Amino acid sequence: MDSLASTIQHGISSFFETGTQALLGFAFRLVIAFVVWFICYRLIKWFCKKPLLKILEKSPITHEVHHFLQTTVKVILYVVLFIGIINILGFQTTSLVALLGGAAVAIGASLQGSLSNFAGGILILVFKPFKKGDYIIAGTHEGYVHSVNVLYTNLRTLDNKGVTLPNGTLANSNVTNFQAEKERRLDIDFRLAYDQNVPHVRDVIKEAMEKNEYIIPERGFRTVVKDLSTNGILISNRAWIKSEDFWPAYFQMQELVMDAVATHGIDIANSQVDLHIKSDESRVVKELKK
Question: CA geometry: angle at 45 spanning 40 and 46, to 5°?
Fold first, then answer.
């Protein structure tokens, strides 16, 4: 009987001793985890607010994506810190990492289109094939770039319609940026009748082009014969302008050229078909004469 009581007493003592040690150990780990969390939390906030922002400002990445990258880096660091805290507390993190990995795969599969747009948006924001205010053509759409977001790019057409393009498609398509360079060439074409004096027309057009306020005088301008066809002589008027002045220069050039042509009585070619009849009378013509 005494031995049973002694065994029970020894078991209780061992239990409390072991429990106390385990509790003290967990309390110590809890204190360490709290200290690590407090210090790392402050460091993450400081790093994302100052050093990371300075790095992003010096990089070619546009300001539109700075906040997104800051938030992304902050979330990743917080996840790493959370896993580290769990590990310090003595819990197994293998299953947790596997669970997070599986969740990431499932989310990636369900958001495949959005992730494609996200990747395209990052490429556009980093390599900058165009920027806000540029006039671009992408596929069947064209207009001024109103905004470039992480997932979508918004255009404004000339008649003020809004067009939203997914960045995934945009990053993998051919894009023509009419304002990639500071200067671009303006071409105005029209056709002359074959009986017109081309040197005289060239002088008239030159005089008209000199009145265009948007032309860059240092680059000069030319009037050339571009093509000869059954529809007449194709005259091309070429001048250099600033890219942002394209449409005002284009409309003014059209008016100046047409006014000059009308004032000097220059004959613009019209589409026509010339019918040539052989001198030899055919059998059908002879029958008709009868």
Answer: 95
Statement: the pTM of the whole predicted model exceeds 0.85: no
pLDDT of residue 156: 92
CATH number of 2-110: 1.10.287
> Rounded to a whole number, what is the largest CA-CA distance in the chain?
152
Find the mean pLDDT for residues 125-147.
86
Sketch the domain layout of the chain as residue ranges. Answer: 2-110, 128-177, 183-263
Residue 108 has pLDDT above 70, yes or no: no
Name the residue among 45, 115, 29, 32 with its Cα closest to residue 77.
Answer: 45
Q: How far apart are CA 212 and CA 178, in angstroms?
A: 20
Sign of the C-alpha dihedral computed for residues 70, 76, 82 and 85 taken in this order: negative
Inter-residue contact 135 to 178 (CB < 8 Å): yes
Which residues sit opposite 227 in a β-bridge?
Answer: 234
Round the average pLDDT of the chain to a whole number and report it.
77
* CATH architecture for the domain at 128-177: Roll (2.30)
Residue 264 burial (10 A CB sphere; 0-12, 13-18, 19+): middle
d(CA 102, CA 108) in angstroms, rounded, equals 10
Q: How far is the CA of 52 from the CAs of 42, 57, 75, in angstroms?
A: 14, 9, 14
Name residue 74's amino acid: K
The domain made up of 183-263 has a fold known as Alpha-Beta Plaits (3.30.70)
For the residues 15-44, what does the mean pLDDT come to? 74
